[in-house]
């Protein structure tokens, strides 16, 4: 599976997109101390995508940190034309995201952070549903987790064809042992 390999961001023409900026106020003796956290996504529009978060005392610094982290966390997504090869449902923390392939011309049917990730990844036709929490960060991480779990149909078929004797051996062993 190619999803676990490190991808070099210098070889790709990446575009960055800001998903969310959160202002955090810490109350101290002298008043409120403001800091910012940013959630950003980067992708090449051809099956490579990554998300990252950054925290700093100024917005531009937080965005730069988020973009740098996103470039470090790139993954490769198997595409089936302009959509994904199969349906997947993933849970990350309290956020549950469902991704379904759709016919060409459908477009991206998704909410805020999921839409941003799918746009920069190059997926054009997909239906998504957020089933759990609406926390933008957790929905984004669940989407990336779901996209990383996608399998290339040809590789999966080859893997399944090469391992049928193992499952039949296990079944016959259970029958012989009186468990089946």
What does the model show?
There is one protein chain. The protein is α+β, with helices and mostly antiparallel strands and 180 residues long. It has five helices and eight strands. It has helices spanning 59-72, 112-121, 136-148, 153-162, 164-177, and strands at residues 15-28, 31-43, 48-56, 75-76, 88-92, 95-101, 108-109, 126-130. Helix 2 packs parallel to helix 3. The longest helix has 14 residues, at 59-72. The protein is globular.
DSSP strand count: 8
* SSE order, one letter for each helix or strand: EEEHEEEEHEHHH
Low-confidence runs: none
> Architecture in CATH?
2-Layer Sandwich
Gap from first CA to last CA:
33 Å
User: Which structural category do the helix and sheet elements fall into?
Assistant: alpha+beta
Shape: globular
Tell me the strand order in the biggest sheet: 1-2-3-4
Short précis:
With 180 residues, the protein is of the alpha+beta class. The chain has helices at residues 59-72, 112-121, 136-148, 153-162, 164-177, and strands at residues 15-28, 31-43, 48-56, 75-76, 88-92, 95-101, 108-109, 126-130. It contains five helices and eight strands; from the N terminus they run βββαββββαβααα.
Furnish the topology, listing elements before pairings.
Elements: E1 15-28, E2 31-43, E3 48-56, H1 59-72, E4 75-76, E5 88-92, E6 95-101, E7 108-109, H2 112-121, E8 126-130, H3 136-148, H4 153-162, H5 164-177
Helix pairs in contact: 2-3
């Amino acid at each position: 599976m190619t999803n676990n390999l490190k991808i070099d961001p210098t070889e790709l023409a990446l575009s960055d997109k800001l998903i969310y900026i959160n202002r955090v106020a810490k109350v101290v003796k002298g008043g409120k101390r403001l800091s910012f956290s940013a959630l950003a996504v980067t992708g090449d529009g051809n099956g490579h995508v990554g998300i990252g978060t950054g925290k700093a005392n100024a917005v531009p610094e937080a965005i730069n940190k988020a973009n740098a982290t996103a470039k470090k966390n790139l993954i490769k997504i198997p595409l089936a034309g302009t959509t994904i090869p199969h349906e997947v449902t993933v849970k990350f923390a309290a956020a549950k995201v469902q991704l379904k392939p759709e016919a060409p011309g459908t477009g991206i049917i998704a909410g805020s952070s999921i839409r941003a990730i799918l746009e920069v990844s190059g997926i054009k036709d997909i239906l998504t549903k957020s089933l759990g929490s609406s926390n933008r960060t957790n929905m984004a991480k669940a989407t990336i987790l779901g996209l990383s779990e996608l399998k290339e149909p040809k590789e999966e078929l080859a893997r399944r064809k090469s391992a049928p004797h193992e499952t039949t051996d296990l079944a016959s062993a259970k029958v012989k042992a009186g468990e089946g």
